[in-house]
Amino acid sequence: MGEMTLVWRHLPRPLCLVTSTLRILEMRPFLSLGASWTSVTKLGLHTRPRMPPCDFTPEKYQSLGYSRVLEIHKEHLSPVVTAFFQKPLLLHQGHMEWLFDAEGNRYLDFFSGIVTVSVGHCHPTVNAAAQKQLGRLWHTSAIFFHAPIHEYAEKLAALLPEPLKVIFLVNSGSEANDLAMLMARAHSNNIDIISFRGAYHGCSPYTLGLTNVGTYKMELPGGIGCQSTMCPDVFRGPWGGSHCRDSPVQTIRKCSCAPDCCQAKDQYIEQFKDTLSTSVANSIAGFFAEPIQGVNGVVQYPKGFLKEAFELVRARGGVCIADEVQTGFGRLGSHFWGFQTHDVLPDIVTMAKGIGNGFPMAAVVTTPEIAKSLAKCLQHFNTFGGSPLACAVGSAVLEVIKEENLQENSQEVGTYMLLKFAKLQDEFEIVGDVRGKGLMIGIEMVQDKVGAHLLLSLQLPGASRRLSDRPKCAYLSRRPRLTLFSANDILQEMEDWGRSWIWGWWKKEVDAKAPERGWVGSAEEFPVSSQTFRIAPPMCITKLEADFAVEVFRSALTQHMERRAK
Q1: CB atoms inside a 10 Å sphere around CB 317
Q2: Which has the minimum average pLDDT: 33-42, 93-102, 112-121, 214-223?
Q3: What would the mean pLDDT of 403-421 be, rounded to a whole number?
Q4: Is the separation of the CB atoms in 126 and 37 below 8 Å?
């Protein structure tokens, strides 16, 4: 299946619905703007949290019947299972952070169409810009000039540091990363490209070599010249401590590191050096990295890691590529681009998803020098990239992010929500890790925190095998992941609370005779994210809605733990 899917579920019939993987059905009509909201903690553990108000009324659905939709889907669309639940949700309309299904039920979207809706569903400013351009000029192709592409290029370039000023407009993140791979090889005259294990950089034949998630690995040959390296995951990996991440929330692992020293980072750098020494040629083409891994479960690296890794790559003749498909355009709050949070300057930046708020649009931004290297070996052309319509939408998205202070909102509401979710670690032993930055949050579930133990005989290249020789942050913490059955159970609990929000969660359809594997996916196929909730709502989300989401999650966990105790 593709990336994390939305988790929404169709349930017995109250009138209002809410969000991304959690969803809560409110047992009463739509709330008015003046309606009050009461915390679960005040009402009691089993009282339904009330959905926050919404002043938008959707149009009446008048299209295909549900059974006909299923028939057409089965007969004419891809047989790859991507829809959630045995009775998939049939969406009809969206407004800002809200979605409505064919029956008029309301959902609070906490996954943004896989981290794609940046400024809100059908934002009126973006809608108006698209409608205006639709009435003027849709398409010309790049062989003719038109004002929207030049206006957009100037606006986008102004948001990136020098010398990142040459822009190639394409249509998707996979296409952008395809082009970035070609640029790196054309500029370096080398072939080998490195990416992290757990990385997702696309599902095209070319980018599948960079993507290191089991379900995307095929028996067919592909990905020539691509090499994986250890992901510096400070929660699940062999090294990590209590000061590693650029986040308001750190791991529960302890370390003895001084404020300006991270032994976990040093150990992961040694692993990166080992990859450079043993797995690639002396000269390489480049290194791809997401500032925060998305599909792998919002995994953050130790502070300072990317900076040292970039230096090592450049010493081998390679270029450094930041994949901002999920992290860009202010979602992380503190900075507009994820690479800025690592204090690095990439040679190439790829971007998609939030760039067009759901409109198919993407870009590759690089230096004049690298752009010229590509031009010498290829007359690059893209039929639809940079169309008048796409550029009008892109400009409107940038305008909304600035005018409505959505980057600042991501910082404020994201930090607020992250800290609230982090408190659940003290309440529930199965909440193993809460991590992230801004409005990109992951909650990893474990069997229990008590079961953690030290693996004293860890054997990794460059790692000391004697306990006395190893820093405290080098201890490997083995926290058993929550079983897939239990993860499914919690998700069902959130459904049972009603129509709530739509979170990201890995799903895999399996034989009904094997319930122990459930629909979340096996730990082998989805190394981390099969037990990690991904939270990435539209950047217009409010604290009121964040409060609601936390209470829904708490309610579901409470009922799950009560059942488990019995």
Answers
A1: 16
A2: 33-42
A3: 98
A4: no
According to DSSP, residue 83 is labeled S
Most confident option among 181-185, 234-238, 377-381, 527-531:
181-185
- pLDDT (average), residues 22-37: 32
Q: What is the mean pLDDT of residues 118-142?
A: 96
Q: Say how far apart CA 331 and CA 339 lie, in whole Å.
A: 12
Q: Are 327 and 337 in contact (CB under 8 A)?
A: yes
- The length of the chain is 566
pLDDT band at 506 (very low <50, low <70, confident <90, very high): very low
Check pLDDT > 60 for residue 184: yes
3-state secondary structure 507-524: CCCCCCCCCCCCCCCCCC
The helix/strand/coil state of 167 is strand
What lies within 8 Å, CB to CB, of 1 at 6+ separation is 80, 81, 82, 215, 506, 507, 508
- Enumerate residues 6+ apart whose C-beta is below 8 A from 511: none
Please give the full DSSP string across 422-488, using - where no structure is assigned: HHHHHH-TTEEEEEEETTEEEEEEBS-STT--B-TT---TT---SGGGS-GGGPPB--PBPPHHHHH
Tokens matching residue 20: 């991304």
Per-residue pLDDT, 51: 87
pTM for the model stands at: 0.85
Unique residue bearing structure tokens 């913490």: 477
| Closest among 429, 518, 415, 529 to 479, alpha carbons compared | 429
DSSP summary character for residue 186: H
562 close to 534: Cβ distance less than 8 angstroms: no
The whole-angstrom separation of Cα 33 and Cα 361 is 35
Q: What percent of the chain has pLDDT over 70?
A: 77
Hey, CA dihedral for 205, 209, 211, 216, is it positive or negative?
positive
* 11 — pLDDT class (breaks 50, 70, 90): very low
Q: Please state, in angstroms and rounded to a whole number, the distance separating the CA atoms of residues 135 and 120.
A: 23
Q: What letter does residue 274 receive in the DSSP assignment?
A: H
| Matching residue, tokens 């979605």 | 99
Supply φ then ψ for residue 349, to 5 degrees.
-125, 130
Are the CB atoms for 474 and 267 separated by under 8 Å?
yes
Record the tokens describing residue 245, joined without a space.
């991440």
Mean pLDDT of the chain: 82
N- to C-terminal Cα distance for the chain?
35
pLDDT for residue 532 is more than 50? yes
CA atoms within 13 A on the CB side of 163: 6
